[in-house]
Amino acid sequence: MSSRPELQAPPEIFYDDTEARKYTSSSRIAEIQTKLSERALELLALPDDGVPRLLLDIGCGSGLSGETITENGHQWIGLDISHSMLNVALEKEVEGDLLLGDMGQGLGLRPGVIDGAISISAVQWLCNADKSSHEPRLRLKAFFGSLYRCLARGARAVLQVYPENLAQRELILSYAMRAGFAGGVVVDFPHSTKSRKEYLVLTCGPPSLSTAIPNGKGEDGESCSDDESSGEEENRTVCISDRHRPRKKQKINKRGKGREWVLRKKEQMRRKGNVVPPDTKYTARKRKARF
Amino acid sequence: MRLLTHNMLSSNIKGVTNGFPLRIEVEKVVEKQVEINHDFLMNIFPKIDWKAFFDASRVMGYVELPEEAPEPSVLESDLEFLRKFHHALLELHLEEGALVCPETGRKFPVNKGIPNMLLHEDEV
Questions:
Q1: From the list B40, B115, B121, which residue is nearest A75 (CB)?
Q2: Tens digits of residue pLDDT in B61-99
Q3: d(CA A26, CA A32)
Q4: Structural domains in chain A?
Q5: Angle between the A27-44 and A17-25 helix axes, to the nearest 10 degrees?
Q6: CA of A135, closest CA in chain B: separation in Å?
């Protein structure tokens, strides 16, 4: 059974020639990655003035996301650790310049030159200690530090990630904040295990109106297609091990749960068929503290 | 790799204070035609380190660029300059060669247009 690629091998070994070819020739994967890239570009919120910008594609791989950037009229520089994946990008003759490099070693770019950065399904690889000399925290620090420096003021970074669990998500977010980024996580389709996608939207500079984080898709009930009938749709690049769904929690404010809530709950129990004491004027009355 | 990217790259080696700009060692340069976009050029112009750009273009074999960076207003009027700027920035590709760290002399090889910026364990 396929598990997370991140647990199988370091990225430069996992994405060898065979895997690189498989990854790029799979039309399903290409479609997913294109959608992710388009959403990431949308979240980048570049000014709609028709001026091409210089963007960074972190973990550009075989250039799937880069092609989306080109289609949107921007210039880009792509960075990836896998030689094989970059070779495929060369074959596709992508418009952006490619760099063979390790984001955990720092991006190596001059300060303030990049207008925006996207990353599709790549940053979670930083959380694995692939070599004995690796320390994920140092790598996260080097990555986010260098990313913050090379971005122009007001620029954003949108990183689509597949964190293994809550701890990883928190780790990534905490190092982003430490580097000076503001921002948060946008989750599209949070209630669907299959379609759920997370984007770290990071902004350089103090929070303001322009840095307000947009809503994820599916939260307002529109077009949240939980497609059960789509057959064999196993997303091979993700297998979230703790399948925790965000639960709707009762908001408990300081005043406690209240009479209304108690009455509602009693009604529910009655409907279920339980034996419930009758509602009187004493129901949910405030008791003495020592009760 | 185009000069646009070269102008943004800096040496990341541990202990290096000023890793910019990387010296270029040319083995093979290729010219690829690209459609000119005025908006992009005007937007990117203030970010370009002109001295590094000028030196790099010379090494790549292009001698048409002026040594002094012109005023930004020149971009809007002088089409000839814009064309030269565009050519040097986006149409010259370093296919084979190396980028050299100015402080340590460490070479980052460039193959098929892709610079290998991977650092060794002791350089991180």
A1: B40
A2: 999 888 888 888 888 888 899 999 999 999 999 999 999
A3: 10
A4: 5-204 (3.40.50.150)
A5: 80
A6: 12
Residue numbers in B near A97 (CB within 8 A)? 1-2, 4-5, 113
Distance CA A117, CA A160 (A): 11
Going from N- to C-terminal start, the domains of chain B cover 3-115
Q: Give the global pTM.
A: 0.77
Report the residue from B10, B44, B118 with minimal CB separation from A110. B10
* Closest residue in A to B39 (Cα–Cα): A51
Q: Kindly state the tokens that stand for A39.
A: 């959403």
For chain A, the C-alpha Rg in angstroms (whole number) is 23
CB contact under 8 A, B20 and A110: yes
Partner-chain contact A90 B1, CB within 8 Å: no
Distances (CA, A) of A193 to A227, A228, A241, A242, B33: 11, 11, 11, 11, 46
User: What confidence tens digit (pLDDT) does each residue in B10-42 have?
Assistant: 998 988 888 899 999 999 999 999 999 999 999
- As a residue count, chain A comes to 291
The shortest C-alpha distance from B96 to chain A (Å) reads 13
Task: From A73, A76, A94, select the one nearest B37 (Cα to Cα).
Answer: A73
Work out the number of other CB atoms within 10 angstroms of the CB of residue A148: 19
Residue A239, CA distances (Å) to A3, A61, A198, A247, B83 in order: 6, 20, 14, 20, 50
Are residues A105 and B119, on separate chains, in Cβ contact within 8 Å? Answer: yes
Q: Which ipTM was obtained for this model? A: 0.93
- CATH fit for domain B3-115, picks 2.20.25.10, 3.60.150.10, 3.40.630.40, 2.40.110.10: 2.20.25.10
